[in-house]
């Protein structure tokens, strides 16, 4: 037993080194990527199944690395958060997203298209975050009243009162706030109660098997009811099939987002998507 445990310790140590090295390499590459403008933004449409109209788009960061190929945000966002690069990354993503959003608003002045942008808790808790962020949006000519900040429930939101104050600075100038990945994180209910939300995004893990597991549909039904009692708008994430669309609609969900409606698209392809959506 003794032997195997020392082998385990060795293996553990090696993999730690590897992880640390990998992390350092990724961080270095990401730092260069931001400088070399390798980051782009894709946009995933959000849909109102009750009116049949497009409601908005969520901007999702993409990294096309010449060395690594396409890197998923699930990989590089955590690296950005741990290394402090998230502030720069967030600024780049925000500027690019807002620029496209302004372009669409100019192309379709009679339509309202909301833009959702992901904000990491690590960004949110930085000093002066709201002031700096609002300045960036205004500098790009963005319209705060059509921009939604998506914040994720995580352990990083330790000081709810502080978080609430930061979010209220955004609300004061017109932004709306969405709680992302609802139901999977920490202290969901305290966030729901205390934060100045407009939208709650119900995590994909509940939507995934909504048509096969009655427990999932019961959970979604309860979340929707609770959110509506608070006056929040609900959005189902990761809707992939028509059957799921019909179910979440029947459960009272206000909005849907997922492959059934559209995958995340580069801005040029979203142009075509909008042309089609607004023609109908
Ligand atoms: P998220 O905010 O929950 O974004 C939704 C994720 O689900 C996206 O993954 C999207 O491509 C994917 N998705 C959408 N519809 C479906 C569906 O029907 N089925 C399935 N299986 N997946 C679907 P993506 O783009 O890989 O992003 C992963 C996560 O990375 C995001 O999760 C978000 O937490 C983070 N992220 C992405 N861009 C940014 C960013 O600019 N800033 C920050 N802070 N985080 C970002
Ligand atoms: Ca999101
Ligand atoms: Ca989400
Ligand atoms: Ca997620």
Automatic annotation (TrEMBL):
It comes from the Bacteria. Residues 23-278 form the EAL domain. Transmembrane segments: none annotated. This is Diguanylate cyclase. The chain holds residues 619 to 898 of 900 of the full protein.
